[in-house]
Specification:
104 residues, mainly beta, 4-stranded antiparallel sheet, 64% strand, elongated
């Protein structure tokens, strides 16, 4: 069983028990939440209505990504700049992908 979810303007393909590192979420550590499901399927077959699928995710921790250093240099002008950046990330675990029966 797989699902395509939307988090922070990006799409991720997930399965049960999978770990993801995504952009920082407004959820607290240790909480669970349900992201928006765009598509779900089982093997080669897809489920027609994604509103019948519920994905449960658990926030493991908030962390910082690796330091990225950017060095700008302009020759013959004595211009040098060193800048850095660390992305704020959240590590989540996909706990469950559940399918409920839709209306007939």
């Amino acid at each position: 069983m797989f699902a395509v979810i939307k988090l922070g303007g990006k799409q991720y393909t997930v399965q049960k028990g999978e770990y993801l590192t995504v952009d920082r979420l407004a959820e607290t550590e240790g909480s669970t939440f349900s992201p928006t499901v765009l598509l779900a399927g089982d093997g080669e077959k897809t489920i027609g209505d994604p509103s019948t699928v519920a994905v449960t995710a658990h926030v493991d921790e908030h962390l910082l990504g690796p330091k990225i250093r950017v060095f700008t240099y302009k020759p013959k002008q004595s211009s040098k700049k060193m800048r850095g950046h660390r992305s704020r990330l959240t590590k989540i675990t996909i706990q469950d992908i559940a399918v409920s029966k839709g209306k007939k």
